[in-house]
Amino acid sequence: MMIRPYTDADEQGWLRCRVLAFLNTAYFDNVLQKKEHYENPSIELVAIENNQIVGLIDIEYEMEPQTICTAHDTVGGMIWHIAVHPDYQHRHIGEELIKAALKQAKALKLTYLEAWTRDNAKIQKWYEKMRFVQTYTYHHLYFDEPALEKYDLSVPAQVRPVTMFAHYTGSDPDVLNRASRRHLCMCYVKRII
Name one GO molecular function term (predicted). Predict the structure, then answer.
C-alpha cells in the first residue's frame, strides 16, 4: 500500500471508496457525486493498493483559530472525510492515513485535529484508539412527513415539507422521540504534540 497526495484524476476512485466505506454506517445516505474542494488549505491523501483507492483522508486547516474548527483558540484541522474501502478494512489503513496526515499537520504547525462522527460504537472506539477525545455532542434528527405534521413550520403555503434534517442541541425526549431517525453526533479532538 502507498499513501500519496490526492490528485484530480483520483476523483472517481475517491468517490467509490467513500460511498462503499459509508454504506454500512450511520452516514449511509450521505452520498457525494463530486469530491469537495475547500476554501482553505487542505491535506488530502489517498491510500493506493492494486492501482485503486482503498482509503482517503481530507483535512481542511485553519490559518486563524476557530475559522473552521470549534475546539480551541489555536489553529487546527477539520477532518471532513476519512474512509477505508470495506474490502480493505481492519488492515490499519485508516491508522496509516492518520499518521501521514499528522506528519503534515505537525509540519504546518497545527495544534489539533477535529472530527465529527455519528453514533457508531466501532468508529467511536477507533477514534479513541487513535487518541482522539470526545468533547461535544448534539443530535442529527430526520423527520418524515408524518413526523413533520406535529410541527408548525413557518413556510409559504405553496411549500409542503416532506422530509427534514435538523441539528438539535437540546435534550427534550419529546423532540427526540418525534424524529423518524436520530443520531448522536460527536466531536472528537486529537492534540498534536
Answer: acyltransferase activity
